[in-house]
């Protein structure tokens, strides 16, 4: 003890000399050779100390003993990617088949249904179910509707035997047209259940009707908004809009002449914003304000179309709010400008290369504008013109209606703010007619989004998902030429489920997978951070679902990666990138999410039951389990080695924990110090603890070991809320012939103060 105390004093003196040498111009000079000697002794003592208590040499020896039976295989990135993409294709293909079955069932039900104006039909209204009146009776459309919490549906109370109906407040829930459509959609119940039985990984399935009701499976209790109303309208959702129409180029023309002052201008601005909300990232748009001259609300977008992604839509909304009325309206020049933009985009192969339309928002059209249509749009009428007459005045209604009817558009009259939503949506039905008539059942996939409508808790609402949807048409012969859209069917796919297919343990400590959509926007990526902290709450960032790949892969300055990916090309390139930490849930040892009876199993329990033959039909990763068992056998002697050290009376003070991690996810841990004396009580982060048996991620200590020279220890200090300790980490490799592969990492923790005293013994 005296020697140790003396050594500690000596070390403090040395540290004092260092500080004196660095901070002031000292009178006593320490020779460089002496400092070099101290560094050498420090290095040797530290290496011996960590090697002894980690057991890394023993692990390396045990691997050497089994080298003759080991085969190291080079992993081909292209093969891994192909297997992953095929897995995604099978998964998404299954969802598309489910949606197709729903669409076929809905169309057949409508085909054989005769409209009944006096139909009396009670359905389960999701707002009213299980509601009792003052007399103890269920309210009309309320009825008893059993609900039970279901882990597969985010622990929400649901009814997996029945769907139910949500109707927005602004739609009369007993309207004859609505009742007939709801009655027709009852046929979907059996298909919902059958789909879920075929594919237990399915989440929400739904049908959004063109009449406004929303049938969802499994049935749920709908919670009204904070003001007591139900503003949710399925027809405003991206999955509905994208499925109901094809991509489109839109020019919004708004009259800002003096006659539009007051409430008219307020309604016009709201109409523009509502139109913008119906657009998605596959659409293109521009906004023109006109009086006696043409004004682009964003001068930078003069003469062109811009992608209608969230950033651009929100930018337009801000600029529209700044519009002020003045002057006299001259529609002719603005209409010419709009046609020129659309025609030029079509000629150059720009924009959506599909539907094109002009949205005219005005309180009246007085000019002679027929010559403009003769010059730019007739006789082909490639551009549809939709007109919105603003205000209660009907003086110029005929002219405004003529414009729409003679250009394959639609005329609506908007006199109040409450009229805006319903009237704007009419243009979608018109644009869907060619699809309906041609029976083009195009399946669409939405961008990644967080659904905050159905879910109230953080865990539920902040899950990124995508939706697959498909339009439902009327197949009745008498209305076939009218192109009637009945609605849209769809289902949600959490992107977490897609990322589970990634063979994470095969990618290496710094490898990661990511997903893009056709516009180059990220669906899943380690560096996608869609949330921000607002006080204690996590909230989605405004543009969380329109983050381009170039914003996270900064080194891809020439878009060598992004461009071929967006074009759907196959190949490989070499890029320098920043190391990423992927937090997405990854492939597990055994799939327990599909069968409800197995969801209670942890991964540890599932593996044991599978290996013991109690659950032979469990879907498990055989290769991963084999690697885990191999690691368990080879690393078993470390337990005896660590125990022998712990029982030794000469155990140095300061060493606390030794632990081993392998790429298969196996961990062995030895506590040299008791809980009462241990400093590093939380050397495993909460994320590490949650994912030790899920191959979710490689912890920091593993990644640091991998990127350093095998056999050499890397040391890093941790300061956990004032508790300071050091983690030492090294990589252990295995060889076969001339090939070498990473086998695992050895690590141990020790307190900083005790480390200094241990090393002081070597320096005295």
Automatic annotation (TrEMBL):
Lipid bilayer topology: Single-pass type I membrane protein
Transmembrane intervals: none
PROSITE patterns named in the record: VWFA (PS50234)
Origin superkingdom: Eukaryota
Family: Belongs to the calcium channel subunit alpha-2/delta family.
One cellular component term from this protein's GO annotations in UniProt: voltage-gated calcium channel complex
Subcellular location: Membrane
Coiled coil regions, renumbered to chain: none
Domain VWFA: 249-431
Presence of keyword Protease: no
Signal sequence region: 1-26
Protein name: Voltage-dependent calcium channel subunit alpha-2/delta-4
Keyword field: Calcium, Calcium channel, Calcium transport, Disulfide bond, Glycoprotein, Ion channel, Ion transport, Membrane, Metal-binding, Signal, Transmembrane, Transmembrane helix, Transport, Voltage-gated channel
GO molecular function annotations of the record: metal ion binding; voltage-gated calcium channel activity
């Amino acid at each position: 003890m005296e020697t140790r105390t003396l050594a500690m004093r000596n070390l403090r003196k040395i540290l004092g000399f260092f500080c004196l040498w660095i901070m002031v111009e000292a009178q006593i000079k320490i020779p460089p050779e002496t400092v070099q000697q101290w560094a050498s002794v420090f290095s040797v003592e530290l290496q011996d100390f960590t090697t002894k208590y980690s057991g890394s040499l023993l692990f390396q020896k045990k691997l050497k003993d089994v080298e003759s039976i080991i085969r190291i295989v080079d992993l081909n990135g292209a093969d891994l990617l192909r297997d992953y993409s095929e897995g995604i294709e099978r998964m998404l293909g299954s969802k598309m088949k489910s949606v197709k079955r729903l669409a076929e069932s809905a169309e057949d039900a409508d085909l054989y249904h005769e409209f009944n104006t006096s139909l009396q039909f009670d359905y389960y209204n999701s707002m009213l179910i299980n509601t009792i009146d003052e007399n103890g009776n269920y309210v009309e459309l309320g009825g008893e509707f059993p609900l039970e919490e279901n882990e597969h549906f985010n622990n929400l109370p649901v009814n997996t035997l029945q769907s139910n109906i949500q109707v927005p407040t602004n739609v009369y829930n007993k309207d004859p047209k609505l009742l007939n459509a709801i009655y027709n959609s009852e046929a979907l119940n059996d298909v919902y259940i059958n789909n879920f039985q075929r594919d237990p990984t399915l989440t929400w399935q739904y049908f959004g009707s063109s009449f406004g009701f929303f049938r969802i499976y499994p049935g749920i209790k709908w919670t009204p908004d904070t003001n007591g109303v139900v503003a949710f309208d399925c027809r405003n959702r991206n999955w509905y809009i994208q499925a109901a129409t094809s991509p489109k180029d839109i020019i919004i023309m708004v009259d800002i002449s003096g006659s539009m002052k007051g409430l008219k201008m307020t309604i016009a601005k709201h109409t523009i914003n509502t139109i913008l909300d119906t657009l998605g990232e596959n659409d293109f748009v521009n906004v023109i304000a006109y009086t006696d001259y043409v004004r682009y609300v964003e001068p930078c977008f003069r003469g062109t179309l811009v992608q209608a992604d969230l950033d651009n839509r929100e930018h337009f909304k801000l600029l529209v709010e700044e519009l002020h009325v003045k002057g006299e309206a001259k529609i002719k020049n603005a209409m010419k400008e709009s046609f020129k933009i659309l025609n030029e985009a079509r000629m150059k192969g720009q924009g959506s290369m599909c539907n094109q339309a002009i949205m005219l928002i005005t309180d009246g059209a007085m000019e002679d504008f027929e010559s403009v249509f003769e010059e730019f749009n007739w006789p082909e009428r490639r551009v549809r013109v939709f007109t919105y007459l603003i205000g209660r005045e009907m003086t110029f209604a005929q002219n405004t209606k003529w414009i729409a009817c003679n250009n394959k558009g639609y005329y609506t009259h908007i006199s109040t703010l409450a009229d805006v939503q319903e009237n704007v949506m009419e243009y979608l039905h018109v644009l869907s007619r060619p699809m309906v008539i041609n029976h083009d059942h195009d399946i669409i996939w939405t961008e990644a989004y967080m659904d905050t409508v159905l879910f109230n808790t953080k865990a539920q609402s902040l899950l990124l998902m995508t939706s697959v949807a498909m339009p439902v048409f009327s197949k009745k012969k008498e209305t076939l030429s009218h192109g009637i859209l009945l609605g849209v069917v769809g289902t949600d796919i959490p992107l977490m489920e897609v990322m589970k297919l990634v063979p994470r343990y095969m990618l290496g400590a710094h490898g990661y997978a990511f997903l893009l959509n056709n516009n180059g926007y990220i669906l899943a990526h380690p560096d996608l951070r869609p949330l921000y902290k607002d006080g204690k709450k996590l909230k989605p960032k405004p543009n969380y679902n329109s983050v381009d790949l170039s914003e996270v892969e900064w080194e891809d300055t020439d878009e060598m990666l992004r461009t071929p990916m967006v074009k759907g090309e196959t190949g490989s390139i070499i890029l320098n990138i920043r190391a990423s930490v992927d937090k997405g849930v990854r492939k597990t040892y055994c799939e327990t999410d599909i069968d409800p009876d197995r969801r209670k199993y942890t991964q540890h329990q599932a593996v044991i039951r599978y290996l013991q033959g109690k659950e032979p039909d469990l879907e498990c990763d055989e290769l991963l389990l084999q690697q885990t068992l191999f690691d368990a056998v080879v690393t078993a002697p470390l337990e005896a080695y660590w125990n022998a050290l712990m029982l030794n009376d000469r155990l140095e003070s300061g060493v606390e924990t030794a632990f081993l991690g392998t790429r298969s996810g196996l961990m062995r841990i030895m506590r040299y110090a008791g809980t009462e004396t241990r400093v590093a009580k939380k050397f495993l982060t909460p994320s590490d603890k949650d994912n030790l048996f899920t191959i979710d991620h490689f912890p920091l200590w593993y990644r640091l070991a991998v990127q350093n020279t095998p056999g050499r220890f890397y040391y890093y200090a941790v300061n956990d809320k004032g508790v300071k300790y050091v983690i030492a980490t090294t990589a252990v490799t295995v060889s076969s012939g001339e090939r070498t592969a990473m086998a695992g990492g050895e690590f141990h923790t020790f307190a900083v103060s005790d480390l200094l005293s241990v090393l002081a013994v070597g320096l005295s």
